Amino acid sequence: MRFGGHETFTLREGWLVKGINLLLENPKAYFDKVDLANALGVGVNMGKSIEHWLLATKLVKKIPLQEAREKGLKYEITELARTIHNKDPFMTQEETWWILHINMIQNPDYAATWDWFFNEFGELKFDKIRLVKKLMEREKTLYKKTPSRSTIERDVSCFLNTYAQSIPREVKDPEEDYGSPFQELRLMNHQKNSGTYELLRRPRRLLPELFLYALNTIHGDEEGSRDITLSWLTKQRSGPLQAFCLSSEGLFELAIGIEHAAQKYEYSVRSLAGDRQIVYSNPGNKTLLNNMYEALK
Length: 297
Prior knowledge:
The radius of gyration is 20 Å and the shape is globular. The longest helix is centred in the middle third of the chain and has 15 residues, at 128-142. It is α+β, with helices and mostly antiparallel strands. Strands 3-6-5-4 form a four-stranded mixed beta sheet. 47% of the residues lie in helices and 13% in strands. The protein is built from 14 helices and nine strands. The protein folds into two domains: 15-199, no CATH class; 208-295, Arc Repressor Mutant, subunit A. Helix 10 (208-219) packs antiparallel against helix 14 (285-295).
């Protein structure tokens, strides 16, 4: 698991758009940190942070080192990034951020705290001290060599700033509002007076493509028929229950609620020996994403 990489900068509005556009227009700029910062119009550390967030959200992937040196290229753009660039070029759709959130919580190499929190932590109310303590305990249990407390604290701070909406809400100058777009997913609140945070585990209304994309994080992207029981699904790492912050009942309600809208995928929820079984035909993530953006027009 990797902590840091973001240079303590929380992801800001427009950063990923800049990063994708630059990779499409001048991919060699990523090979040198100074060239990258100049091309993005930011400082060197901020440029490194944008680079990190592109990796954390799986919009880019590294080119093998030898090939990278030969070509003078560091990254290649993913199919997901191309789809977003074509369908939501300014990343204004909330659904785009749900997709990126789903990617981050199953990416411990670049978003270790994100992966741990949504898949393992489990508490609904907490403060930063509690979060740091539990994460450090986890690392000491699993690994001989562990990150320093300051490293964990910085990563936890960045994580909390990514998602938490302050209560009471602050009135900010739009020109100076550096709030993360992930806050608009309404997954977490921060009570400023007490310093406590609350994970908002509640029912959600989502497009069926988002739900099926989350299922594909468990089963893979291959096309074909799928059947999954709800009891099995609640126990799976990085699945829809964790990604959308649902209770078991909320997961059931979402699975049932999308049934009509998901008919094109031969989707249904059936009773099975005291359990519920989701059956559908997976068209692959590329088709799911294209259909999702078509539905948003």
